[in-house]
Amino acid sequence: MGGKEKIEAPALPDRDSIEETLDAICASDGFAAAQRLQDFLRYVVIETFEGRGAQIFGKTIAEDVYKRSPDKEGDSSNLVRVDARRLRRALEDYYAGPGENDRIRIHIDPGQYAARFEIAERRTPPVPSRSFWRPGPVVLAIAATAVLAVAIFAGIHMFVSHEHETIALSPPAPPAESRRTAKREAFLEKSPASVHAFNLTEQARNFYYPELGKKPLAEARALYENAVKLDTHYFGAHAGLAQVIGFQSFHLPPGAERDALVDLAEFHAKEAEKYNAADAWTQSALAWAAFARRDIPDARIHAARAMEIAPADLFAVDFDALISVLSGDYIRTISVTDPARYADLPLDGHLFQICVGVAKFHLGDFAGAIAALERNMETGGPSGPINFAYLIAANQKAGELEHARQLLEQFRTTWPTTRFDLFLYSFFMERAPVDDLVAALKEAGWEPPET
Question: What global pTM score does this model have?
Answer without folding.
Answer: 0.58
